[in-house]
Amino acid sequence: MKKSTHRNPLIKTLSKLSTNEKQLASTLICNQLTRWLNTHQPNQLGAFVPVRNEPNIWPALKNYATTNALYLPKYNPKKNGYDWALYKEPLTASKFNIPEPATACGTPPTLDACVVPAVGIDPNGHRIGWGHGYFDRLLSTKIPHRIGIIFDCQRISAPIKSDIWDIPLTGTITDQRHDAI
Q1: What b/e string do you get for 40-50 counting C-beta neighbours within 10 Å, with b at 16 or more?
Q2: pTM for the whole thing?
Q3: Which of 44, 103, 128, 138 has the fewest CB atoms within 10 Å, counting from its CB?
C-alpha cells in the first residue's frame, strides 16, 4: 500500500489518544529508549524534539545529553531543509515551530545512532513521516542504528510501498515492543 493511504488514518488514531494515554505510553517508551542507550552507548546520537502527537522522549534525550553528544535538526533556509546541530540550550523555534539549537554544525557529525520520528512504521522498517521529507534527508545508511520511535498503535501490519530515497529503519521502540538491535 502507498504511504498516503495510511498517513491520515494514523494521524486520526493518534489524535484519539488521551493526554494520560500519551503520557503513560511516552514514559514506557522513554524507559525502553534509556535501556537501549545504556546498552549500546552511542557517542553521537541524532534525535528529534517531539512535537504534535509524537511520543515525548525528551526526558530520556535530555538525560543522555548530559554525558554524550546529542544532535538535533536545525532548519537551513538556503537548502529548504535541515542540517544537524549539537544540542545546546536554549532551543529556539524553527520555521515549523520545532525547537532547535541556534547554530548548525559546519561539518555533519558521524552519528552512531539516530532516533527517528514517524507517523507509522511497517514490519520492514519503512516509515511514514509527516509528509515533507525533511527528516528523510537527514538519514543515511552510514548511521548504523536508525530507531523509529512511535506509539504501538502506529505500527503498520502490512508492508508499505517504499520510495527509492527511503532509508529503512533498523529497529523500532514503542510503548509495548522493542525490536531495536
Answers
A1: eebebbbbbbb
A2: 0.93
A3: 103
